[in-house]
Write a structure and sequence with these properties.
By secondary structure, the protein is of the alpha/beta class. The protein has two domains: 37-234, Alpha-Beta Complex (Spore Coat Polysaccharide Biosynthesis Protein SpsA, Chain A), CATH 3.90.550.10; 238-345, no CATH class. Helix content is 52%, strand content 12%. It is built from 13 helices and ten strands. The relative contact order is 0.10.
Length: 347
C-alpha cells in the first residue's frame, strides 16, 4: 500500500509531469501545422486588361492535383480598366491592385509579396495543366541552383498566324531563353540575380535568363513546364503590333543587342532597304536589284531557322504564310528600331 510519503510525492509531482506532457503534446503538433500551411511555391501573375483570359488561368491553378496549402497565387494588377480586377476578386488569391510600372516591376512586386520558397511566374493569358505545380516543386527541389523555364503550346483551334508562327511540337518548340509565360526558380536565386529588369518595357524575361547565367546559375528550358498560351497574336495586324513592342528596347543596350543574331539581321534588312532606295535615286539599276533581293531575303533566314528548329516539314501551301509572318516580323522590328533611334536623338 502506498505510504503517506509516496502519496505526498505523487501529489506534488503529478502536476509537474502533467504540465511537461502538455507541453510535449501541444507544441509539436502546432509547429507541424505551421510548417504544413506555409506555401512552398508562390505563383506570380502580372495582369493588364486580361479580362478575356485570366479567369481560365486562375481556374487551372485552382484545379491542381496538389494540396492548395502547398502553393499560393498572387495576381499583380497593372491598372487594368476592363474588368480584370472584378474577375480576380472572385478567386481565393492574393491581389495587388492598381500597381504601376513596366512588366518587370510588376513581376518583382509579386515576388516581394510571395511567401513561398519557390517562385513561379506565368502570364495571365496562360493555362497550366493539372500537374504543373507538382512538377514545378519537384524540379526546383531536386535542382535548387537551376532556373527552369517552359515553352508555349498552341490553344485549341489556332488561327493560321498562331499555327505557322509556333512551328513544331511541345519539345521542338522550346525557346532558347526564359519567357515570362513560364519561369520557376528558388526565391534565394531570384534575389541573387536582383529579380527582373524594371527599366525595359519588354524583354525582361530574356534579361533574367542572361543574369542567371552570368551569376553561375543553370538555366534549363523543359517541356515539363510548357503552358498553353491563349494570348497569341491571331491576326497579322496583332502580330505586327506585338513584334514592334518587343523591339522597343534594342537601342537601350546596343552592346547586348549586337550579340543578338536577330538584331544583326534586322540591321542587314534596314541596310539593304536603304541602299536599294539610294541606288534607285541615282539610277544604279544593277545594284538596286541586288539590294532589293537582299532585303526580301532577310526574312527567309528566320523562316528556315524556325522550320529547322521545329523539325517540321510544312506543306508547300504553308510556305508563303511562314515567309509572310517572318517578313512582317522583320519589318515590325525594323520600324520599332528606327522609332527608338529617332526618339533618342530627338531634341
Amino acid at each position: 500500500m502506498p505510504t503517506s510519503v509516496t502519496i505526498g510525492l505523487r501529489a506534488w509531482l503529478d502536476p509537474i509531469f502533467y504540465f511537461i506532457g502538455y507541453l510535449l503534446t501541444s507544441r509539436k503538433p502546432k509547429d507541424i501545422i505551421v510548417t504544413e500551411i506555409k506555401p512552398y511555391l508562390s505563383v506570380v501573375i502580372p495582369a493588364y486588361n486580361e479580362a478575356d483570359h485570366i479567369g481560365e488561368c486562375l481556374n487551372a491553378l485552382r484545379d491542381q492535383n496538389c494540396a492548395q496549402e502547398k502553393y499560393e497565387v498572387i495576381v499583380v494588377d497593372n491598372k487594368s480598366t476592363d474588368g480584370t480586377l472584378e474577375i480576380v476578386q472572385q478567386y481565393n488569391v492574393e491581389l495587388l491592385a492598381r500597381q504601376a510600372g513596366n512588366v518587370g516591376k510588376i513581376r518583382n512586386l509579386g515576388a516581394q509579396k510571395a511567401k513561398g520558397a519557390v517562385l513561379a511566374f506565368i502570364d495571365a493569358d496562360c493555362i497550366v495543366d493539372s500537374d504543373w505545380i507538382t512538377r514545378a516543386i519537384k524540379l526546383s527541389t531536386d535542382n535548387p541552383t537551376t532556373v527552369f523555364g517552359g515553352g508555349c503550346l498552341l490553344p485549341p483551334n489556332p488561327t493560321a498566324v498562331e499555327k505557322y508562327w509556333l512551328l513544331g511540337n511541345s519539345e521542338t518548340r522550346l525557346p532558347k531563353d526564359l519567357i515570362g509565360a513560364s519561369i520557376v526558380l528558388r526565391k534565394e536565386s531570384f534575389k541573387k540575380i536582383d529579380g527582373f529588369d524594371e527599366s525595359v518595357t519588354s524583354g525582361e524575361d530574356t534579361a533574367l535568363s542572361r543574369s542567371a547565367t552570368t551569376t553561375g546559375l543553370v538555366v534549363r528550358i523543359t517541356g515539363e513546364l510548357s503552358v498553353v498560351h491563349n494570348g497569341n497574336a491571331k491576326t497579322y495586324s496583332e502580330f505586327a503590333k506585338r513584334q514592334a513592342w518587343h523591339g522597343e528596347n534594342y537601342i537601350r543596350d546596343v552592346a547586348s543587342s549586337m550579340k543578338d543574331p536577330t538584331f544583326i539581321i534586322i540591321l542587314f534588312s534596314l541596310a539593304s532597304l536603304s541602299l536599294a532606295l539610294l541606288t534607285a535615286i541615282f539610277s544604279l539599276i544593277e545594284w538596286r536589284f541586288l539590294f532589293i533581293v537582299l532585303f526580301f531575303s532577310a526574312p527567309i533566314v528566320f523562316s528556315v531557322k524556325r522550320i529547322v528548329r521545329g523539325r517540321v516539314t510544312p506543306p508547300l501551301t504553308a510556305l508563303p504564310i511562314i515567309y509572310a509572318l517572318d517578313f512582317v516580323y522583320v519589318q515590325a522590328r525594323s520600324y520599332s528600331l528606327l522609332k527608338s533611334i529617332f526618339s533618342t536623338f530627338r531634341p
